Structure formats: C-alpha cells, structure tokens
Amino acid sequence: MPKRLSDGEVSELRRLSAEGVLQRDLAERFGVSQSFVSRVTRGERRERRERDGLVLVDGPVRVALEEWLAGFEFRGADRVRVRVAETLASAVDGCAASTTAAALATLPRLVGQLEFELERLANAADERPALDVKRLLREVQAG
Predict the structure, then answer these.
(1) Is the pLDDT of residue 58 over 70?
(2) Exposed, middle or buried, 74 (CB in 10 Å: 0-12/13-18/19+)?
(3) What is the DSSP string of 20-62?
(4) In the predicted structure, residue 53 carries a pLDDT above the cut 90
(5) How far is the CA of 28 from the CAs of 3, 7, 23, 34, 36, in angstroms?
(6) Which run of H or E residues covers position 12?
(7) Positive/negative CA dihedral, 20, 24, 25, 28
(8) Which of 12, 65, 103, 131 would bridge 98 by S-S if both were Cys, CB 3.0 to 4.6 A apart?
(9) Which phi and psi angles does 55 have, rounded to 5°?
(10) What does the DSSP 8-state code read for residue 128?
(11) Rounded to 5 degrees, what are φ and ψ at 48?
C-alpha cells in the first residue's frame, strides 16, 4: 500500500520543491514515487483537511461554498445542513476531478443534492442561493 503523507509532509514537500529540491530527491526523502511528487507539486493532488472527523477536499465548489457561508451564522438544524452541504461540495469536487466512470456517473446526483441543501440554507438565511454549482462545475471542467 502506498505511503500516505500527512498535511504537514505535503506542505513541506511543496515548500522544498519551490526551493528547487529535485523531485527524485523529494521522492526518496518522503518515501513516495517521483510521479506522486510531480502530481503534488503540480497541484493535481488535492488538499485535504479534516474538520470534526470529516475529510474535506478543498476544490472550487467547496471553496466557493465556504466563502458564501462565512457571511452567516446558522443555528440548530441549519448547522447540520451546513455540514451536509460542505460534505457534498467536497464530494462534488472529488468526483469532478476524477476520470472514473463511477465518479462521473455519481456527479449529477451529488450536484442535485448539493443544490437542494443550498436552497434550504439560502431560505434559512433569507438570501439568494449560495452559488450556481452547475455553472461553477462547467467552468472548472472547461479549463
């Protein structure tokens, strides 16, 4: 099984790469393949972070959602909806970045679920819907 790097190790790997350390030297130092180092330094490997036991992928949908959520204070059941929306946004980003048939087939359902949760949160906040997830995904996939 390939070695999993901690967030700190990934940050250190990126820092050393930016300072000019060769990929093969980084691969040896961190016990991973050179191709993995290459993907990390090119940004193809997504940042992941854990919050309240959930691993979240910071992709464009997740980041846009977080920016919108920052302007509101949700309470009670709406806080649960925020967590659901964050998890769905992370899943949408992960599936959108994948090339597997299963991920691509799952994407429309996840987008629909996320849009439903966003509408509920927008209603709770007495606001417009948070973001146009489908439009954002089209932009990400186009370029």
Answers:
(1) no
(2) middle
(3) T--HHHHHHHHTS-HHHHHHHHTT-SPPEEEETTEEEE--HHH
(4) no
(5) 12, 18, 9, 8, 11
(6) helix 7-18
(7) positive
(8) 103
(9) -90, 120
(10) S
(11) -125, 145
Would you place residue 24 in the very low, low, confident or very high pLDDT band (cuts 50, 70, 90)? very high
The single residue listed with the structure tokens 């994407």 is 107
Which amino acid is it at 128?
A: R
Q: Which two tokens stand for residue 125?
A: 């906040």
pLDDT of the residue at 1: 37
Alpha carbons 76 and 78: distance in angstroms, whole number:
5
pLDDT in tens, 90-127: 888 888 877 788 888 898 899 889 989 988 888 888 87
Give 63-99 pLDDT, tens digit per residue.
Answer: 788 877 877 888 888 989 998 998 898 888 888 877 7
